[in-house]
Every structure is written in C-alpha cells, then in structure tokens.
Amino acid sequence: MPETWDRYGSMKGSNFADIPSSGKYSNSERSIPYVQNEKAYHSGNFNNTTYFNKIDAIKSGDFDALNIILKSEGIPTVSEAYFEDLKMRYDAFIAKIAKEVGTYVDATYGIKGKVAAWKDLKGGAGQITTPLIGDKLLRLGIIV
Question: Dihedrals φ, ψ of 115, to 5°?
C-alpha cells in the first residue's frame, strides 16, 4: 500500500488515491466530472505495519487475532457482531472482484491500478480499492 492516501466523498466508499510527490491528482486525472469540493476531501496515511495482519485475521475469520492486534495498538477491540459484519463485507468484496475481474486476481488486500480516461477527462491517477470502506478502515486503525 502507498504511504499516503486521499479521497473525495464520504468515508463510506472504498476507492482511495495515492498522493504523488508532486501533490494530489486533479479531477481530470481522477476522471471526476464535477467541481472539486474541498469540504469532501480526506487524506491520511495507511498503517502498513499491521494492515496485512488485520486483513488476514478478517479473511480467516480469526476474531481473537484481530482483537489482539487492535489491543496492542491501543485501539478499542471489536465485538463479535462487528467482526462478523467485517467478515461479511470482506467476503462480499472478494466475491465481487472474482465476478468482475476474475478469480486469477489476488484481491486479498485490495486492488491497485490507474483510473481510466472518461470522455474528455484524462485519467491516470493511482487508485486503490480496499476490501473495506473508509469508516471501517478508520475504526481499525488501518488508515489514519
């Protein structure tokens, strides 16, 4: 995962852009056809130290392992019901990627690519689609 991320829109989505050293991408590079709304802009860092371990715990259904990691980082642990919701969302993401892209793609930790051009917008921005939405990533300390 890149170190830094940004996103336009609510944290209910799972598409993030990396932030190049030259600065954030333009709307045209993002293929976003509307006026930029800085009030809807979010940015931060990926916690690459434990990102993969947290996703592995969710993927394998290991409630205790996730809570051990969270506790070690001073992040409140999750309930069994919350964990089951995470697992359901994760499994739905994997099934969706398998259906849309194919089973030959390993989407365990998300998908990384480039935004396609659209109409008169040039595309080319780096994009990461994560297996969980932003609000869940924040709660788990995966993005900060």
Answer: -70, 135
